[in-house]
Here is the input.
Amino acid sequence: MKGSFLLTFGVGIFALLGILPGKGLPESLKSGGPAVGGQNRFPGWNIEYKLPQGWQVGQALGRLQVLGSNTEPGAIFLAPGMYRSAEEAIADLSQFYQSLNLQGAPVEPPKNTTIAGLRAIVATYASMDQMGRTVHGRFISLLTPHGTGLNMLGMTTPEQMSRLGGTLERLAASVTAKPPSVNRQAIQALAGTWVLYQGGYSGGSSSTGSTSHSHEETVVFDGQGSYQWQSSTSVSVTTPGYTGDAARATSDSDRGTYTVVGNTLVMKGTKGQFTFDIQIEGNRLAAGGKTYLRN
Here is the structure.
């Protein structure tokens, strides 16, 4: 059971937003979010902030909120998480860059500061988008006294970063936080062993050969906040004219703690923090676009 920072956002960032040239908020992102300049919050996480003037929530994907503006080029990504240290917040940021197929190099290395009375980490990163353009990302993470945090990333061209950076700082200064609403009923309902199996077979003729593959995941929740996860994947290929099969098998495992905030499952193990919007229906668990069955 693996996820990615701010949930999987596997599309080209500026292909989606289309706002680097200053075109404003595209129609695809006008989804009727909170009023421009109004107050917004993350349900369950109990973190609130004030939308900057001229900005609105274009999309809300799980715990991720994407902000866009009709007057200011760029995009702002916001997501809460269970962070107790700068290292945990930055690790989540790294996973987010990977989900966008970007590699961020620090222009301004991370440093500690205080914003709105909260511990904060600030940094600036440079990367290249899918069209070869340089993109700067201004990162601010606020750590609350409740074991939670809010990661904020503003992305635009280097020429526009000064303006967007100021907008992001004003947003960060408006953040307030209360203890998260832990869904203890969901924590207990997850107790047990959940299994995911995916497999397939193609080909099979004497002229084309055949390919078979399988993937299995098992996650065990104890109902009190601890989990164990393991996976195995195998691929077998039969090629005409050759004796025997070409096969490859891999495995992976992890263990750690979990909690549920609202309908978001947060798992923290040796491989980092992963989050999923979940839905439990009897013996079926939907998480991260996958369906697990209770064993």
Remarks:
- The two ends are 15 Å apart (CA to CA).
- The helical segments are 13-17, 86-99, 161-173, 184-189.
- The domain at 184-294 is CATH 2.40.128.360 (Lipocalin).
- DSSP finds four helices and 18 strands in the chain.
